[in-house]
């Protein structure tokens, strides 16, 4: 069972805790991670691109010149795709790119990325993160104390506006609630900072 040193906001060790081996110590499945990341990115696509086909472009109702005798190639419309201002062949149209990945695959991918964070020493467990007011300077000081990388995802148990607002203006730092994290967000950041309460929620959900 993997163990990790839990620290406080000053960076001082509090206690050594045991992580759930079913979540933080599994055989990493890279393909499951790939499938879930691909799914997340597909669901983010707006799908609003649109171009006009030759049927939708204005004009071109009259045949440009007669069929034979001019010495030029036969043409039926000045709005054919080969003409300047003509329609687009197989024009893209608004569509929905979203789809769902099986729940088992999503759970496996989440466990895989959490395990990778432990193996790469990028997981930081903090006993509690509290901000008396929304102060960016205090949050930056905390990140320095716990030796977090510049790109960090801070996972908290509940919605805490002071914490969220304190981190909002720090480049490369994002906050999220334990119930809202996803595989793509965890992979994007170099440090994964989790409070003790958020860790309990994650272990309860994914165990």
TrEMBL record:
Question: What job does the chain carry out?
Answer: One of the primary rRNA binding proteins, this protein initially binds near the 5'-end of the 23S rRNA. It is important during the early stages of 50S assembly. It makes multiple contacts with different domains of the 23S rRNA in the assembled 50S subunit and ribosome.
| Keywords attached to this entry | Ribonucleoprotein, Ribosomal protein, RNA-binding, rRNA-binding
Q: Which HAMAP family match?
A: Ribosomal_uL4_B
Compositionally biased spans, kind Basic residues: 60-71
| Gene Ontology terms: cellular component | ribosome
Q: Gene that codes for this?
A: rplD
Record carries keyword ATP-binding: no
What's the name of the protein?
Large ribosomal subunit protein uL4
UniProt cross-references to NCBIfam families, sorted A to Z: rplD_bact
Q: What is the lineage of its organism?
A: Bacteria, Bacillati, Bacillota, Tissierellia, Tissierellales
What is the protein's quaternary organization?
Part of the 50S ribosomal subunit.
Matching InterPro entries: Ribosomal_uL4, Ribosomal_uL4-like, Ribosomal_uL4_dom_sf
Where are the stretches annotated Disordered? 47-79
Q: What does the record list as coiled-coil region(s)?
A: none
Superkingdom of the organism of origin: Bacteria
Keyword 4Fe-4S tagged? no
Tell me which family the UniProt entry assigns to this protein.
Answer: Belongs to the universal ribosomal protein uL4 family.
């Amino acid at each position: 069972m993997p163990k990790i040193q839990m620290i406080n906001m000053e960076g001082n060790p509090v206690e050594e805790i045991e992580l759930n081996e079913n979540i933080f110590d599994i055989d990493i499945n890279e393909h499951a991670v790939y499938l879930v990341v691909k799914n997340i990115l597909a669901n983010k696509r707006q799908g609003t691109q649109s171009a006009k086909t030759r049927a939708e472009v204005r004009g071109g109702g009259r045949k440009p010149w007669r069929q034979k005798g001019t010495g030029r190639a036969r043409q039926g419309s000045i709005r054919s795709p080969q003409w300047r201002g003509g329609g687009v062949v197989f024009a893209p149209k608004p569509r929905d790119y979203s789809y769902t990945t099986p729940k088992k695959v999503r759970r496996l991918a989440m466990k895989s990325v959490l395990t990778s964070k432990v193996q790469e020493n990028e997981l930081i467990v903090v006993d509690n993160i509290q901000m008396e007011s929304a102060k960016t300077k205090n949050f930056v000081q905390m990140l320095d104390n716990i030796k977090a990388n510049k790109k960090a995802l801070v996972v908290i148990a509940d919605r805490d506006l002071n914490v969220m607002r304190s981190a909002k203006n720090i480049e490369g730092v994002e906050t999220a609630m334990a119930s809202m994290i996803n595989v793509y967000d965890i992979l994007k950041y170099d440090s994964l900072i989790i409070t003790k309460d958020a860790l309990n929620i994650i272990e309860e959900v994914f165990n």
